[in-house]
Design goal:
Layout (H helix, E strand, L loop, with lengths): L2 H15 L4 H8 L3 H13 L11 H10 L1
Length: about 70
């Protein structure tokens, strides 16, 4: 990882893992909220952010029955 990747990973972690708002992150880093938004978008595009949704089997079965 390079410094850019480190920044992207830090911003993504603050946002998704620590539930900090973009405004909080912007203030912490001394940048605009628009910049934070762009960093999060870049992290998605570069595969730094990966989302997993875990669903109990009963929820899957209920969803399939209602489809």
């Amino acid at each position: 990882m390079n410094e850019r990747d480190d920044l992207l990973a830090m911003v993504a972690s603050l946002y998704y893992k620590l539930n900090q708002g973009q405004g909080e992150i912007a203030q912490r880093l001394g940048v605009s909220t628009s910049k934070v938004s762009r960093l999060i978008k870049e992290a998605w595009e570069r595969g730094i952010i990966d989302v997993q949704i875990r669903m109990p089997i009963r929820a899957i079965l209920r969803w399939r029955m209602n489809s």
